Amino acid sequence: MTRRKKTRSLADKVQIRTGRRKDYKKWRHENPDQVASSTRYTQKKRQQRKLQAARKLARQEAGQSIAIHPEQGSDPGSSEP
User: Which end of the chain, N or C, is more open, meaning fewer C-beta atoms within 10 Å of its C-beta?
Assistant: First the structure.
């Protein structure tokens, strides 16, 4: 009896007629309601997105602010810088 290789691939966990990757892709396409990400994966991705958003916010706050449209004189048509 041979041991099966440990894998994280979802394709090996789904038992279908032939067990080929091509057949799994076809089955997955035909049955989208039966295919779902694992809770561990979704939790990991949610945490990664939170960290990414926090880092982005920190970068924005740490960066120097520039005046894109600085307040000029009362005349908006003046060409002076």
Answer: N
Closest by Cα among 35, 36, 33, 8 to 24: 35
Rounded Cα distance, 7 and 15, in Å:
14
Q: Using CB atoms within 10 Å of the CB of residue 39, give its burial: 0 to 12 exposed, 13 to 18 middle, 19+ buried.
A: exposed
pTM summary value: 0.44
Type of residue numbered 58: A
38-73 tens-digit pLDDT: 899 999 999 999 999 999 999 999 988 888 887 775
Q: What angle do CA 59, 62, 68 make, to 5 degrees?
A: 90
Closest CA to 14 of 35, 43, 44: 35
CA distance 57 to 49: 12
